Amino acid sequence: MDIRTICLGVLTLGDATGYEIKKYFDNAFNHFFTAGYGSIYPALAQLTEAGLVTCMAREQERRPDKKVYSITAAGRRHLEEALTICPARHKVRSEFLVLMYFAHLLSRERLAKVIDARLLYLEELIDGLRACENDAQATPGQRFTAGFGIAVLQAAADYIRQNRHLVEQAEPVEAEVASV
Amino acid sequence: MDIRTICLGVLTLGDATGYEIKKYFDNAFNHFFTAGYGSIYPALAQLTEAGLVTCMAREQERRPDKKVYSITAAGRRHLEEALTICPARHKVRSEFLVLMYFAHLLSRERLAKVIDARLLYLEELIDGLRACENDAQATPGQRFTAGFGIAVLQAAADYIRQNRHLVEQAEPVEAEVASV
DNA sequence: CATATCATGTAACCGGTTACATGATTCC
DNA sequence: GGAATCATGTAACCGGTTACATGATATG
After folding, report:
1. Where are the alpha helices (DSSP H) in chain B?
2. Chain-chain contact of B145 with A92 (C-beta, under 8 angstroms)
3. pLDDT tens across A52-96, in order?
4. Cβ of B74 under 8 Å from any chain A Cβ?
5. A156 interfaces chain B, CB cutoff of 8 Å
6. Distant-in-sequence, close-in-space partners of B176: CB < 8 Å, separation ≥ 6
7. Distance (Å, rounded) from C-alpha A51 to C-alpha A44?
8. Phi, psi for A21 (deg, rounded to 5)
9. How far, in Å, CA of A17 to CA of A34, rounded?
10. Is pLDDT at A108 greater than 90 in this prediction?
């Protein structure tokens, strides 16, 4: 599944500009999918070319024209097809956990800093998700994914707090200069 | 942080071949970092060229020569530096959660199948991690990351079981043909 | 006065994935 | 007999990231 498909999905929730779609990635999808303007604008251009969305330019003074995209009937069909055949993977790429795995190669300061920063960030994310979950307007899917994020991120934070001693109490390796 | 750095890290745990390093990615790193041969072998070649590892070829009959890699002193220094300056991100890319977010666009069958498959896979992963966690030989970092995986994946599985009704009980959208 | 928001886009780059190529041995 | 394991590698591809380009308005 690529970013095009997700843009199409967002447009089923209402017409939107690229700028507005980006906000979905920053807010709702924050904890499970990311995309920058460098992906979204080209995706929208490709969708337009393929006839899966239409674009209405609204002139604005002293600003780039606002381009409001709408999904077409062909776009809806395409989206349903895509959501039916795409694999349902869940991929994690965690430099944080790599650092924990090799914790014995890090200085105590670095280790503590990395862990503290991670905990701080997790709390931020969780706070953001609570707002989504409590939104009365949210669809079931939106509530489910927000709740999922809260549950999983909270479990991560709890685990880190309760087990950081495992890596922090171990002796850091002194780059083979320890003896002699 | 790229795959080169992780290969270097694995080699601090003992000499290894590319094939053996792949096993780390498949077992220990499974839940937080992936890499295929197409990434590992070129990484090892680049590390060798940079003098960060050395390579001893062991001849084998009727098989490609086994190449055993060892980290050098320069490699250790490079690794420590890399682990000190690299960002500690944790990135998720979940097609599964995208599907849940747009659950109302999926058929009931598809939705149930996706959820069941995810639960099954989560249990598999957790079982694999328990073996790592209980390994008496494991370093603190290895135990920490395995425990982390168990905690987080278990939380995910529990959440899905307890809340799948949120998305499964909602009416699927009938592609705007519902009325008329 | 500086930062955030609104608003769109392009081009180069990079790194990882996938597919291909080869082939014997051992276990079920 | 078929699948899994051992064992290494290359080349094309693709998709997402980063950096660049532009610039007014509103908020603190």
Report:
1. 3-11, 18-26, 37-49, 73-85, 95-101, 108-134, 140-168
2. no
3. 999 998 877 667 789 999 999 999 999 999 999 999 999 999 999
4. no
5. yes
6. A73, A76
7. 11
8. -65, -40
9. 17
10. yes
Q: How far is CA A45 from the centre of its chain?
A: 22
Structure tokens given for A86: 């795409």
Whether B122 and B77 have beta carbons less than 8 Å apart is answered as no
Task: Identify the CA nearest to B75 among candidates A97, A133, A175.
Answer: A175
Nearest to B102 by CA among A47, A142, A2: A142
- DSSP character at residue B104: G
For residues A118 and B32, the answer to whether their CB atoms sit within 8 Å is no
Length of chain B: 180
- Best B25, B108, B115, B148 member to test A by mutation, with max A CBs in 10 Å, is B148
pLDDT tens for chain B, 180 residues long, are: 999 999 999 999 999 999 999 999 999 999 999 999 999 999 999 999 999 999 998 877 666 689 999 999 999 999 999 999 999 999 999 999 999 999 999 999 999 999 999 999 999 999 999 988 888 888 999 999 999 999 999 999 999 999 999 999 877 776 554 443
DSSP string, A6-22: HHHHHHTT--B-HHHHH
Span A6-18, average pLDDT: 97
Residue A160 contacts residue B145 (beta carbons within 8 Å): no
| DSSP output for A102-158 | TGGGS-HHHHHHHHHHHHHHHHHHHHHHHHHHH-TT--HHHHHHHHHHHHHHHHHHH
What pTM does this model have? 0.93
